[in-house]
Amino acid sequence: MTLKEKIGYGFGDMSSSMFWKLFSYFLPFFYSNVFGLSLADAGVLMLVTRIWDAVSDPMMGIIADRTKTRWGKYRPYLLFFALPFAACGILLFTTPENGKTLWAYVTYILMMTVYTGINVPYGSLMNVMTADSDEKSVLSSYRMFFAYGGSFIALFAWEPLCNMFDKGRAAVEGAGALASVSTSPDAWQKAMILIAAFCFILFILSFLMTKEHVKG
Known about the structure:
By secondary structure, the chain is mainly alpha-helical. It has seven helices and no strands. The mean pLDDT is 91.
Protein backbone atom coordinates (compact mmCIF):
# COMPACT_ATOMS: atom_id res chain seq x y z
CA MET A 1 0.00 0.00 0.00
CA THR A 2 1.43 3.36 -1.04
CA LEU A 3 1.92 6.53 0.99
CA LYS A 4 -0.60 8.20 -1.32
CA GLU A 5 -3.30 5.73 -0.27
CA LYS A 6 -2.53 6.20 3.42
CA ILE A 7 -2.77 9.98 3.14
CA GLY A 8 -5.92 9.69 1.02
CA TYR A 9 -7.55 7.51 3.63
CA GLY A 10 -6.62 10.03 6.31
CA PHE A 11 -8.25 12.84 4.34
CA GLY A 12 -11.64 11.17 4.79
CA ASP A 13 -11.54 11.32 8.57
CA MET A 14 -10.10 14.81 8.45
CA SER A 15 -13.23 15.96 6.66
CA SER A 16 -15.59 14.12 9.00
CA SER A 17 -13.80 15.35 12.10
CA MET A 18 -14.02 18.96 11.00
CA PHE A 19 -17.80 18.69 10.68
CA TRP A 20 -18.16 16.75 13.92
CA LYS A 21 -16.13 19.30 15.86
CA LEU A 22 -18.33 22.10 14.53
CA PHE A 23 -21.49 20.17 15.45
CA SER A 24 -20.39 19.25 18.96
CA TYR A 25 -18.76 22.55 19.92
CA PHE A 26 -20.46 25.33 17.96
CA LEU A 27 -23.92 24.06 16.97
CA PRO A 28 -25.51 24.48 20.43
CA PHE A 29 -24.26 28.08 20.51
CA PHE A 30 -25.53 28.62 16.97
CA TYR A 31 -29.02 27.36 17.78
CA SER A 32 -29.37 29.44 20.94
CA ASN A 33 -27.55 32.69 20.03
CA VAL A 34 -27.70 32.93 16.23
CA PHE A 35 -30.56 30.79 14.97
CA GLY A 36 -32.93 31.51 17.85
CA LEU A 37 -34.05 27.97 18.69
CA SER A 38 -35.37 27.36 22.21
CA LEU A 39 -33.42 25.07 24.54
CA ALA A 40 -36.42 22.73 24.77
CA ASP A 41 -36.69 22.38 21.00
CA ALA A 42 -32.94 21.87 20.69
CA GLY A 43 -33.01 19.15 23.35
CA VAL A 44 -35.86 17.25 21.68
CA LEU A 45 -34.13 17.59 18.33
CA MET A 46 -30.94 16.00 19.66
CA LEU A 47 -32.93 13.15 21.23
CA VAL A 48 -34.90 12.42 18.06
CA THR A 49 -31.72 12.41 16.02
CA ARG A 50 -29.97 9.98 18.39
CA ILE A 51 -32.90 7.59 18.09
CA TRP A 52 -32.76 7.85 14.30
CA ASP A 53 -28.99 7.22 14.36
CA ALA A 54 -29.58 3.94 16.18
CA VAL A 55 -31.63 2.81 13.18
CA SER A 56 -29.73 4.42 10.29
CA ASP A 57 -26.22 3.24 11.26
CA PRO A 58 -26.84 -0.53 10.99
CA MET A 59 -29.11 0.06 7.99
CA MET A 60 -26.31 1.88 6.16
CA GLY A 61 -23.87 -0.88 7.06
CA ILE A 62 -26.11 -3.48 5.42
CA ILE A 63 -26.56 -1.34 2.30
CA ALA A 64 -22.83 -0.70 1.95
CA ASP A 65 -21.93 -4.38 2.43
CA ARG A 66 -24.23 -5.30 -0.45
CA THR A 67 -22.91 -2.62 -2.81
CA LYS A 68 -21.01 -3.70 -5.92
CA THR A 69 -19.60 -1.17 -8.39
CA ARG A 70 -16.58 -0.80 -10.66
CA TRP A 71 -15.03 1.42 -7.98
CA GLY A 72 -15.52 -1.17 -5.27
CA LYS A 73 -17.89 -1.64 -2.38
CA TYR A 74 -17.24 1.32 -0.07
CA ARG A 75 -15.28 3.92 -2.05
CA PRO A 76 -18.25 5.04 -4.19
CA TYR A 77 -19.96 6.47 -1.13
CA LEU A 78 -17.08 8.92 -0.65
CA LEU A 79 -17.75 10.21 -4.15
CA PHE A 80 -21.55 10.18 -4.19
CA PHE A 81 -22.06 11.59 -0.71
CA ALA A 82 -19.32 14.23 -0.76
CA LEU A 83 -21.53 16.94 -2.27
CA PRO A 84 -24.65 16.16 -0.15
CA PHE A 85 -22.34 16.12 2.90
CA ALA A 86 -21.09 19.63 2.14
CA ALA A 87 -24.53 20.94 1.13
CA CYS A 88 -26.22 19.65 4.29
CA GLY A 89 -23.54 21.30 6.41
CA ILE A 90 -24.29 24.64 4.78
CA LEU A 91 -28.05 24.21 5.21
CA LEU A 92 -27.54 23.29 8.86
CA PHE A 93 -25.86 26.64 9.53
CA THR A 94 -28.38 28.61 7.46
CA THR A 95 -31.03 30.68 9.25
CA PRO A 96 -34.37 31.05 7.40
CA GLU A 97 -36.72 33.95 8.02
CA ASN A 98 -39.69 31.71 8.83
CA GLY A 99 -40.32 28.14 9.95
CA LYS A 100 -37.15 27.93 12.00
CA THR A 101 -38.15 24.97 14.15
CA LEU A 102 -39.12 22.84 11.15
CA TRP A 103 -35.95 23.92 9.32
CA ALA A 104 -33.81 22.92 12.30
CA TYR A 105 -35.39 19.46 12.53
CA VAL A 106 -35.19 18.74 8.80
CA THR A 107 -31.65 20.00 8.28
CA TYR A 108 -30.17 18.39 11.40
CA ILE A 109 -31.74 14.99 10.79
CA LEU A 110 -30.77 15.18 7.11
CA MET A 111 -27.20 16.12 8.04
CA MET A 112 -26.86 13.21 10.45
CA THR A 113 -28.32 10.84 7.86
CA VAL A 114 -25.82 11.94 5.23
CA TYR A 115 -23.04 11.84 7.82
CA THR A 116 -23.92 8.20 8.45
CA GLY A 117 -24.18 7.57 4.71
CA ILE A 118 -20.58 8.58 4.10
CA ASN A 119 -18.90 7.60 7.37
CA VAL A 120 -20.15 4.05 7.80
CA PRO A 121 -18.71 3.00 4.39
CA TYR A 122 -15.58 5.06 5.09
CA GLY A 123 -15.01 3.20 8.34
CA SER A 124 -15.34 -0.13 6.52
CA LEU A 125 -13.05 0.94 3.68
CA MET A 126 -9.90 0.10 5.62
CA ASN A 127 -10.84 -3.59 5.69
CA VAL A 128 -10.83 -3.80 1.89
CA MET A 129 -7.76 -1.62 1.35
CA THR A 130 -5.54 -4.29 2.89
CA ALA A 131 -5.80 -7.68 4.56
CA ASP A 132 -2.55 -7.18 6.47
CA SER A 133 -3.09 -6.37 10.17
CA ASP A 134 0.10 -4.30 10.37
CA GLU A 135 -0.96 -2.15 7.43
CA LYS A 136 -4.38 -1.71 9.04
CA SER A 137 -2.64 -0.40 12.15
CA VAL A 138 -0.71 2.06 10.01
CA LEU A 139 -3.93 3.17 8.29
CA SER A 140 -5.54 3.69 11.68
CA SER A 141 -2.62 5.87 12.72
CA TYR A 142 -2.94 8.01 9.59
CA ARG A 143 -6.68 8.23 10.14
CA MET A 144 -6.19 9.38 13.74
CA PHE A 145 -3.50 11.90 12.79
CA PHE A 146 -5.65 13.56 10.12
CA ALA A 147 -8.74 13.42 12.34
CA TYR A 148 -6.92 15.40 15.03
CA GLY A 149 -5.67 17.79 12.38
CA GLY A 150 -9.19 18.37 11.09
CA SER A 151 -10.53 18.94 14.59
CA PHE A 152 -7.76 21.43 15.30
CA ILE A 153 -8.48 23.39 12.11
CA ALA A 154 -12.22 23.51 12.74
CA LEU A 155 -11.88 24.47 16.38
CA PHE A 156 -9.40 27.29 15.93
CA ALA A 157 -10.46 28.64 12.53
CA TRP A 158 -14.22 28.89 13.06
CA GLU A 159 -14.44 32.03 15.19
CA PRO A 160 -11.97 34.01 13.04
CA LEU A 161 -13.89 32.98 9.91
CA CYS A 162 -17.25 34.07 11.36
CA ASN A 163 -15.79 37.38 12.51
CA MET A 164 -14.10 37.93 9.15
CA PHE A 165 -17.44 37.65 7.33
CA ASP A 166 -19.19 40.00 9.77
CA LYS A 167 -17.99 43.56 9.25
CA GLY A 168 -20.42 45.00 11.78
CA ARG A 169 -19.73 42.35 14.42
CA ALA A 170 -21.28 42.54 17.86
CA ALA A 171 -20.03 40.14 20.53
CA VAL A 172 -22.35 38.18 22.80
CA GLU A 173 -22.10 39.06 26.47
CA GLY A 174 -21.89 36.20 28.92
CA ALA A 175 -21.24 33.56 26.24
CA GLY A 176 -18.18 32.14 27.96
CA ALA A 177 -15.52 30.84 25.60
CA LEU A 178 -17.54 32.09 22.60
CA ALA A 179 -18.03 35.62 23.91
CA SER A 180 -16.05 37.18 21.05
CA VAL A 181 -17.65 35.34 18.12
CA SER A 182 -20.02 37.01 15.67
CA THR A 183 -23.75 36.31 15.95
CA SER A 184 -24.54 37.27 12.37
CA PRO A 185 -26.48 34.44 10.63
CA ASP A 186 -24.97 35.48 7.30
CA ALA A 187 -21.43 35.28 8.70
CA TRP A 188 -22.02 31.79 10.11
CA GLN A 189 -23.44 30.60 6.79
CA LYS A 190 -20.49 32.00 4.81
CA ALA A 191 -17.98 30.46 7.21
CA MET A 192 -19.70 27.10 6.78
CA ILE A 193 -19.64 27.43 3.00
CA LEU A 194 -15.86 27.78 3.16
CA ILE A 195 -15.41 24.85 5.54
CA ALA A 196 -17.86 22.67 3.59
CA ALA A 197 -16.04 23.33 0.31
CA PHE A 198 -12.77 22.25 1.91
CA CYS A 199 -14.37 19.09 3.34
CA PHE A 200 -15.91 18.29 -0.04
CA ILE A 201 -12.46 18.42 -1.64
CA LEU A 202 -11.03 16.20 1.10
CA PHE A 203 -13.60 13.46 0.47
CA ILE A 204 -13.08 13.63 -3.29
CA LEU A 205 -9.34 13.30 -2.76
CA SER A 206 -9.96 10.38 -0.41
CA PHE A 207 -11.96 8.65 -3.12
CA LEU A 208 -9.33 9.33 -5.82
CA MET A 209 -6.30 8.39 -3.72
CA THR A 210 -7.54 5.10 -2.22
CA LYS A 211 -8.06 1.64 -3.71
CA GLU A 212 -9.96 -1.46 -2.66
CA HIS A 213 -7.39 -4.24 -2.95
CA VAL A 214 -9.32 -6.95 -1.06
CA LYS A 215 -12.24 -8.30 -3.03
CA GLY A 216 -15.18 -9.50 -0.97
